[in-house]
Specification:
7-stranded mixed beta sheet, 114 residues, 4-stranded antiparallel beta sheet, 11 strands, 55% strand, mainly beta
Length: 114
């Protein structure tokens, strides 16, 4: 059974940094495309970053501030977030597609506020 478990969210001041982690089990992780999404209250879920092996892609709203990376020895994908803004406040979810089925973590809340 595929499971994704996120951690690392919290409250941070504008301009601060956080690193989110998502540990995956039940798949051959090194072959999985991994995604980070976020969802703010009243808004649709938004794709933030994608990592497929050496290829990465970012939403325009986070380019230059967020970095997605992975450690295949730990079955873990990370989202390093810097220069955080209040508009980055959201629940963040990691996601992967495996055998034609989407899997999601439980989400971790990131709040950027003074």
């Amino acid at each position: 059974q595929v499971q994704l478990v996120e951690s690392g969210g919290g409250l941070v001041q504008p301009g601060g940094s956080l690193r989110l982690s998502c540990t995956v089990s039940g798949t051959i992780f090194e072959f999985q495309t991994m995604n980070w999404y976020r969802q703010a209250p009243g808004k649709q879920r938004e794709l933030v970053a994608t990592n497929t092996g050496g290829f990465t892609k970012y939403a325009d709203s986070v380019k230059g501030r967020f970095t997605i990376s992975r450690d295949n020895t730990k079955n873990t994908v990370y989202l390093q977030m810097s220069s955080l803004k209040p508009e980055d406040t959201a629940a963040y979810f990691c996601n992967t597609l495996y055998l034609r089925q989407n899997y999601w973590g439980q989400g971790t809340q990131v709040t950027v506020s003074t």
